[in-house]
Design brief:
alpha/beta; globular
């Protein structure tokens, strides 16, 4: 089931300092907890991101082709296809979409496993809003650098 899809900015404008915001800052949130989808979506829209939310990995894969750019915020513990399986499927598909893994689990090894598995980062719930936004921006910057260097 798709959460309330919180799409937002269609036209991003230059900041006052003249810096142009990237128009393709699309965020996909996959978390089986609808309240997490809504809260993260509402937060990220205020930072200028366009957000689509999904309550399962299966719904995400049905709705979003691998060719669509963006950053995926992915919960680990979900019924059906869990976050680790989802991350593996993305890697095998070659989508190149950066993934930020989130979890309420207190397992201290998740951050290492997430990075080893190819995620752009890991955050343990609850996390600081700014930490999430900074991690998303870093993921987009790295992805942009990789595209420019042909990686």
């Amino acid at each position: 089931m798709v959460c309330d899809n919180i799409r937002k900015p269609e036209n991003l404008r230059p900041k006052e300092n003249g810096e142009i915001l990237l128009e393709n800052k699309q965020i996909f949130i996959v978390d089986d907890d609808e309240s997490v989808c809504r809260a993260l979506g509402a937060l990220l829209v205020t930072y200028g991101f366009t957000v689509d939310t999904f309550t399962s990995a299966e719904e995400f894969f049905r709705a979003v082709p691998d060719s669509v750019p963006g950053c995926l915020i992915l919960d680990i513990h979900m019924p059906g296809m869990d976050g680790w399986e989802t991350l593996q499927r993305l890697l095998v598909s070659g989508s190149g979409r950066p993934v930020i893994v989130i979890s309420a689990d207190k397992n201290g090894e998740f951050d290492e496993k997430a990075l080893r598995t190819g995620a752009a980062g890991y955050l343990q719930k609850p996390f600081n809003d700014r930490a999430l936004v900074d991690l998303i921006n870093t993921a987009f910057e790295k992805k942009g650098s990789a595209n420019k260097t042909g990686k």
